[in-house]
Amino acid sequence: xxxxxxxxxxxxxxxxxxxxxxxxxxxxxxxxxxxxxxxxxxxxxxxxxxxxxxxxxxxxxxxxxxxxxxxxxxxxxxxxxxxxxxxxxxxxxxxxxxxxxxxxxxxxxxxxxxxxxxxxxxxxxxxxxxxxxxxxxxxxxxxxxxxxxxxxxxxxxxxxxxxxxxxxxxxxxxxxxxxxxxxxxxxxxxxxxxxxxxxxxxxxxxxxxxxxxxxxxxxxxxxx
Length: 224
Fold this sequence. Notes:
The protein is α+β, with helices and mostly antiparallel strands. The protein has one domain: Cyclic phosphodiesterase (Cyclic Phosphodiesterase, Chain: A), CATH 3.90.1140. Helices cover 33% and strands 31% of the residues. The protein contains 5 helices and 9 strands, in the order αβαββαββαβαβββ. It has helices at residues 4-21, 46-63, 93-109, 142-153, 181-189, and strands at 34-43, 67-69, 76-83, 118-127, 132-138, 167-174, 195-199, 201-209, 214-222. The protein has a 5-stranded antiparallel beta sheet, with helices on both faces. The longest helix has 18 residues, at 4-21. The protein is globular and about 50 Å long.
C-alpha cells in the first residue's frame, strides 16, 4: 500500500485534533455563494455515496444545527484546480480560462483512454477545523502520478499555485460551533469500514457555486 497517504492523514488528524476538541473550528462563510473557477474532479461511486449519506445521518443526530452536509449529487474527489476560485489572477478568472480554454480542452480530450484506471479505498475520517473529510488511499500513488502527468501535459495557468496532494471527499463543513466536539470525535473514531471504488473517468467542470454545488461539465475522459 502507498504509505505516503496514511502518513499525511495521521499528520492532519494530529495537527487538528486539539483545536477541534476545543471547538476552535472555522465557520464556513462561502457555502452556497457564487464562485468562478475551473476544476478537475472525480465522481464518487454509488457505494461511496451510500456510505457518506449514512455517515452524514449519524453526524446529524449529534450536530444537526452545526453542520453543512455535502449533498449526494455533488459528492466528489477534487483531482486538481485549473483556475482556482480563491486564487488571484491578473486577467480575472473568466479571462484566464478563456485564454487557455481551446488549448486546454483539446489536450485534455487527447488524454482519453491513455492512462490506466485504478482503485482507491476510503479508509480514514478526519475531523479538520474547516471540515470533516473522508480520506482515501491507493496502492502505488497512482492518483498523484496522474496529477503529475496532467500537469506536464496540460496548460495550467502559472497563477494556479494550489495543488492537491492527497485523496479526499468532504463530508461536512460547519455553519456554527459544535455542541459537543468530543462526541463527534468518538463517532468518527468508531468508523472502521473501508469502501473502495475504481477511478475510471476524469471530469473537467466549471464551478459556479461553492463548494461545487452548481457546476457545468466541460469535458470528460476515460481511463483504460
